[in-house]
């Protein structure tokens, strides 16, 4: 008697568990199919000639250089071209643009699956989504709505574009350092200052070191500054022009003093960060004194230019 009463209950529970397991299996399988379909579409998004399953394509075949502007649903952010980025499953028509890419991925779904696939482009985020349904007829053996007659699955994948990323990174690496800190607004105005109205005296009127220094500043539109050599010595620069070249004026000098100044300037030039180049200007005194040929050769050997003003 007990067996007669319990056996139908055990059978019913067993069948329910089996059917529930089949429902869960079908749901997981459909979820996996939705994920695979969205991944295939996202993987082949940068070239509509790619095979969505293998990624193979004919070398040289592509969508053109500017497809991201004209065939990527970018106007969807303004409410345009939104419908063309949604296709229904099954869909045998293969168009162009986002709809065509979605259709090629949807065509690989197994028979009996229906739903939709969509693509949205928010510029900062591009995503392919799939929402699928499949009938679950086995539930008809159970009374009521214990288990639904449809299983559903969703999947989504983000479109990544390595080619565009590499191109953007290369562009940034190439141009940002080239324009960063090139010149400030104040420096630009300083470079564009017109000095024609400022009278520059003739060199034969120069009779002191101070006059020679002032002459050089007017001549190159530079400014006087003080630098520190890599060894920690102070070096007064008579004028630094807009290009970063240091100009030094000499009126009264001796060989020992010139060699000491040369040592500092060679260090600054080798360092290459505070000055871009160095020019020594020698002004002829009343006695006609000029730097020796040995000094001039040593300066030239170390990349320091020499100008003798008459």
Automatic annotation (TrEMBL):
The chain crosses the membrane at residues 6-25. Keywords: Membrane, Transmembrane, Transmembrane helix. This is Pilus assembly protein. It comes from Paenibacillus chitinolyticus.
